[in-house]
């Protein structure tokens, strides 16, 4: 005796019954695409950096408008039907009045300026788009392994399970096989309880490797408001990236003027400093920390330093010496110079002479370059080097 079907899959097109849901998904995809096109500006958006604890934030998007019903002009009929010969995309009505224009230059216009759409998205959504092409470069297996990550592996198919894990393809395949055996008439796919197939999974904890990242920032008097904001913007996203993608990565925060010191995360992102600049002090401290706490045979070490390049002239030679020592102990070392006036510093000139492939420099002239720096240090170039 054949079981009574749980439901029947109709051959009719049901898409018209869920147009609202389809339109909503299409609008969300447009928002996602618009955000991806403007990531360089969004990464350095002050409202985002200052709203690190907010679940939802508003992102200005100028390439998309809020969805709404749009009627014709007042002298046109507002009737939702045509004469039957229109196609998708055709303009059904157009005003015969003079075309209104926005004001340009010194000429007045009779329309308001172009509005932009503020999309409300979560920090996690933005972070996912920013981090999708980033990773810690050159990760290697080390003697001591504490850094792990969880992977969900769907490795079995069963006849029982929760409805959210139903395997639609296998379920329909089982239905087709059963109806073929019983030579059921062509009345649609009648899915029974015995046809249902569910995916099951296991959570596997896999060791990655140990990793420690040294975040080093120049906080001397020469670092103005813009320079400090740029440096903190980069480290804001770097810290979020590391904690989102790696469960046990360690981050050490180092701040320096003429002297370097290890500081708390709160101090690193909020406190201002003053005084002269000796970049050698932070590289010397970084070497000492790695030697005493994170030996390279047991850890994957990374170091990233941001400065305006305004270093004490007699300190450049010593700085380069400590940089070369640090490069030997790290999987990758990065130097970012904040250079809004497009000038060439002596420190940058010396840094660019270093040819080691695990050392990367980045010049930041404006806010949108923060995203470029993230991609330089964690992006495709280093991925290729690690493969």
TrEMBL record:
Biased composition regions of type Basic and acidic residues, renumbered to the chain: 96-109
UniProt xrefs under InterPro entries: Spore_YhbH, UPF0229
Domain of life: Bacteria
Stretches the record annotates as Disordered: 74-112
Pfam families assigned: DUF444
Protein name as catalogued: Sporulation protein YhbH
Organism name: Bacillus taeanensis
Source lineage: Bacteria, Bacillati, Bacillota, Bacilli, Bacillales
Gene: yhbH
């Amino acid at each position: 005796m054949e079981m009574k079907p749980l439901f029947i899959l109709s051959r009719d097109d049901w898409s018209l019954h869920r147009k609202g849901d389809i339109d909503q998904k299409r609008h969300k995809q447009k928002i996602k695409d618009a955000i991806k096109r403007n990531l360089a500006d969004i990464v350095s958006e002050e409202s985002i950096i200052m709203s690190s604890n907010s679940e939802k934030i508003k992102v200005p998007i100028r390439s998309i408008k809020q969805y709404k019903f749009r009627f014709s002009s007042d002298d046109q009929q507002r009737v939702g039907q045509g004469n039957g010969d229109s196609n998708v995309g055709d303009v059904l009505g157009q005003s015969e009045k003079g075309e209104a224009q926005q004001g340009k230059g010194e000429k007045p216009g009779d329309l308001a300026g172009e509005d932009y759409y503020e999309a409300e998205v979560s920090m996690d959504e933005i972070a996912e788009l920013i981090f999708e092409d980033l990773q810690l470069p050159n990760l290697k297996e080390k003697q001591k392994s504490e850094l792990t990550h969880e992977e969900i592996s769907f490795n079995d198919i069963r006849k029982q399970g929760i409805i959210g894990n139903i395997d639609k393809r296998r379920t329909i395949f089982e239905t087709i096989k059963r109806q073929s055996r019983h030579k059921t008439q062509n009345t649609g796919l009648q899915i029974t309880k015995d046809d249902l197939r569910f995916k099951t999974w296991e959570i596997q904890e896999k060791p990655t490797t140990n990793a420690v990242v040294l975040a080093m920032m120049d906080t001397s008097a020469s670092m103005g408001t813009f320079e400090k904001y740029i440096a903190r913007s980069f480290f804001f996203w770097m810290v979020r990236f590391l904690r989102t993608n790696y469960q046990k990565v360690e981050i050490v925060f180092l701040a320096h003027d003429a002297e370097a010191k290890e500081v708390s995360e709160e101090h690193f992102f909020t406190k201002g400093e003053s005084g002269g600049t000796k970049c050698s002090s932070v590289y010397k401290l970084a070497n000492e920390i790695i030697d005493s706490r994170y030996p390279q045979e047991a850890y994957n070490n990374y170091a990233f330093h941001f400065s305006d390049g305004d270093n004490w002239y007699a300190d450049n030679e010593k700085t380069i010496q400590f940089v070369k020592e640090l490069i030997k102990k790290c999987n990758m070392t990065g130097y970012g110079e904040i250079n809004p006036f497009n000038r060439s510093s002596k420190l940058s000139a010396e840094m660019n002479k270093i040819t080691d492939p695990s050392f990367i420099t980045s010049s930041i002239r404006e806010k949108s370059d923060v995203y470029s720096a993230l991609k330089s240090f964690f992006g495709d170039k280093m991925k290729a080097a690690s493969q």
